[in-house]
Amino acid sequence: MAAVETDSKAPFSLDSYHVSEELGFILPEPLVDLPPYYKPWMDIALRVPELVQSHELRSHINQMPMLSSKFLQKHRELRLAHLALSAMTMGYVWQEGENDTVETLPCNLAVPFWEVSQRLGLPPIFTHADGVLANWRKRDPEGNLELLVSLPGGDSVRGFFLVTLLVELAAVPALRSIPTVVNGVGCGDTEAVARALENISQSMEDMTDALKLMQVHVEPAVFYGIMRIYLSGWKDNPSMPKGLVYEGVQTEAMEYSGGSAAQSSLLHCFDELLGVKHEEKSGAFLTRMRNYMPPAHKQLIQDISLQPSLRSFVQQQADERLSQAFQLCVTRLLTLRSYHINVVSRFITVPAARARQLRDQSRDLEEEMISRAPTALEERGTGGSGIMTFLKTVRDQTKDAFLPETN
């Protein structure tokens, strides 16, 4: 690849994309409380699991005062408000499971949730940006973490969101290396690109290792039988075929997908950097998931996609270290996706098969939990995708990014 003039434009940087040097896409130092005016929101949001369990959440929300969102001024205030309102919304919709859902979200919740969502550029539903990126604080000086807001599922909910947070954290060195790759390709610096790609592949390995903690901290029966429905949306969901009316916003029902790993910006960035292409159906789902990300993160993915092709640069340089570094990145991305399939099998596919077997049998407590799980989502992810087919297709398309074999 011919060297590109770099004097005519500023080097590529992460400065304008709300990416933290230390935390990547994670929101630094999320607020733990809102101004006193919003106490009615926080009082309910912090009690969602217990109010769902006692079947009182809907009545508490129906009695909640209508509050204006105009007193939320700062970005962190808006993010905490979105987290609180989204947790209340998931609890309200799914309090009675899949067989007694609601068609309308009351205006005292729907209107401020819509307003906050519009200001943030996020959809009015619980997203990865809420449950993972903006839902943490340090519990003690040692750095042990806890959630700000939870959903039904006890310790497994905490484990699920905090392990996912650790995966995001493991990716930070890779994110920091992306500008080095882009600028190195631009000026033909083979050594800088190779070194940055080696950092990225190490980071991907660390992400896979972090993901392995899911097996330690999350009970499959709890995830499948309790948690999963509270992460589910009202798009591509047979339990809510009409979607949800946001009262006071518009009279027609709206459809939004539930939280999904595809809403993390990480793998989207890696795909664009490495030139991984997805076929029409899986690609359309992944592209739609970008609308569930903070707009600055979505813009970063788009801007990486507009840079000169790294893969072409590697092929043209014919440098052994560079080629090996690129191939290792694709290998590690493939390994990460394969391990994610393993996790999904453990937490969705295997429990789904057990649930079908157990419905007509006497059961112990764990089996009871699995057998009562939502049937409508049996083979689907919380984002609404046909999960295994989708993940295996995306994984297999990653292989196409490998450089062709040379003699």
From TrEMBL:
InterPro entries: Indolamine_dOase (IPR000898), Trp/Indoleamine_2_3_dOase-like (IPR037217). One of its GO terms (molecular function) is metal ion binding. Coiled coil: none annotated. Heme b binds at residue 340. Keywords: Dioxygenase, Heme, Immunity, Iron, Metal-binding, Oxidoreductase, Tryptophan catabolism. GO terms for cellular component: cytoplasm. Belongs to the indoleamine 2,3-dioxygenase family. PANTHER family: INDOLEAMINE 2,3-DIOXYGENASE, INDOLEAMINE 2,3-DIOXYGENASE 2. This is Indoleamine 2,3-dioxygenase 1.
